[in-house]
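Forgive a beginner's question, but would it be possible to get a protein, spelled out as residues, together with the matching structure tokens, please?
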Amino acid sequence: MSDRLTALLTSNDKTPRLLLDAADYAKRVLLQDKDVPWSDATAFSNHLSSIQMLLKPDVALIRIDQLLQDELAHNTTLLETMAAKTRTGYATRTMLGDEALKEKVRDLVFTASKTQNAPVLLHLSSPKALLITADRAANPDSDKSFDDDSAEFAAVYYADWVRIFAEHRIAGIIFDERTELTTDEAYQPIRNTAEHYGWLIGHRGEDSLDFGEDIPTVPVVGADFWDGSGDVPTAQALFSEVPADAVLEQVLERIKEIREQGQAS
């Protein structure tokens, strides 16, 4: 599957390839602000297919980080286990080691990915951001900070955890670096796992999505684009998060403009 994604991102086709994070937008428009059905793999698969049919991006993105946040908001048994010890990284290691959660995530990704024609990308928090999320969920009063060594520790457990997708039809994983940067060295265990299974690893920043030196950097299109005030960008591939409050007609028109500009050039 990563071969297809690589081909998309390096294509000389004049029509830009569009990678969209439409999770919050789709929750409002398609689910009418109801909860995303993270606990029902079939229902989530149908929801993902609806996003693809409506917006027609070139990649299907699954926000696994939002699934984990939802689990932390509702799974009190897991939270109690995570809070049993206060040593650095314990909450993260406990969460990633939870077998029931692994099975839930594995089943959802398996069911959703096998129904998609487009390459599937998973979206996860950076290792350092994951440490903070897990720590605050287990210990709400905590103000613990995490250094690069702690992030490397989390990356090791992350690298093992993502093996649950070994038999799945995914093309790669995006790590969100917008709030908490993790050093390039810390990602080495994750890259080793990804290379073994043939996945691409992307790093999402405020202005770009970077898949490494062999693939052109993907510019990030800002939120103002979707209300009609931003220019239509030009690039081989574009990444953008559709704002939750965007107007459907404007969103569809802007996507059309991107496609048509590529064909006209």
Notes: The mean pLDDT is 93. The beta strands are 17-21, 60-63, 120-125, 172-176, 200-204, 208-210, 218-221, 237-241. The chain is about 45% helix and 15% strand. The first strand starts at residue 17 and ends at 21.
